[in-house]
Automatic annotation (TrEMBL):
It is an enzyme of class 5 (isomerase). This is Methylthioribose-1-phosphate isomerase. It comes from Siccirubricoccus soli. Its EC number is 5.3.1.23. It catalyses: 5-(methylsulfanyl)-alpha-D-ribose 1-phosphate = 5-(methylsulfanyl)-D-ribulose 1-phosphate. GO terms for molecular function: S-methyl-5-thioribose-1-phosphate isomerase activity. Keywords: Amino-acid biosynthesis, Isomerase, Methionine biosynthesis. The active site is at D241. PANTHER family: METHYLTHIORIBOSE-1-PHOSPHATE ISOMERASE (PTHR43475).
Amino acid sequence: MKIDGKPYRSVWVDEDGWSVRIFDQTKLPWQLDILRLTGLAEVAQAIRSMQVRGAPLIGAVAAYGVALALRADPSTEGLERAVAVLGETRPTAINLRWALDRMRARLHNLPPTERVAAAYAEALAIADDDAETCRRIGQHGLPLLREIAAKKGQVKVLTHCNAGWLATVDYGTALSPIYQAHDEGIPVEVWVDETRPRNQGAALTAFELGKHGVKHAVIADNAGGHLMQHGEVDIVIVGTDRVTRTGDVANKIGTYLKALAAKDNGVPFWVALPHSTIDWRVADGVAEIPIEERAAAEVTELTGRTADGRIETIRVAAEGSPAANPAFDVTPARLVTGLITERGRCEASETGLRALYPEAG
């Protein structure tokens, strides 16, 4: 990815060779702040507060969090404590657990004196894997956009939340085929759901697409069905925080409603995901995937820039009114046209997924 012509990843080791840098996503799009993380507590807070977010990126940052923790305490107790602390930060995104399990498996049997160097190497390997995985997701999703463009001369995509390079180490999941289509010269236009209550679409996806030069427009979350009814959406592509082995998809709250509208209007509904997002233990997403309940203030308040340039938070709900804030919902596999992975596309089913991942058993 590039910001104003300068290449970045979403997480990297600083020039000092040990501290970790991330973008503070709570400040975007108003400020481009780069945070320096130096210890376990800072990494856990960055994940919990959503300074860093997006299922694949959370996993990569947590891996570096283990490395930072081991600098202070490379013992087995220190390793287990780091894994436990980071594992409790966000409950829904399975990539976090996947990355921590991978770090524990790599480091557990090593002598404490070797763990720090091995931890940084493994965290880098996780980050590299995610970047390459997302590039390949884009390659496998690109033919869907090419086909539509060949028939219509252009492609109108609707997406929900942020599943671009800010949610991954690079490229993104749902946005990766869009970027590759744009770079290929395909006329692509993106409808960007605002994605209340945290506005990741309006703030982050729009920021990304604008920096890359992709034509887009921010829409209210409730506008998607209307646009589909009037033929203004050719395809929906979203990311995901967890996919069951049967193809159910957990993603940002509101995704389920988009899938229902797409089904009713005959619009293809595709989900882009890396291998680390598949939870082979879970069959029924609605019954088994834990849904994070976040602070009511995310619903009752909004942050934005005033006319004179100040960043302010205001209350938008009636005084005294409580709010509920489930952060994710589950879209049943029956509403999903198909899954786009780094190994190819498949139907949203156990048969489809196991055809791509036979080693999963």
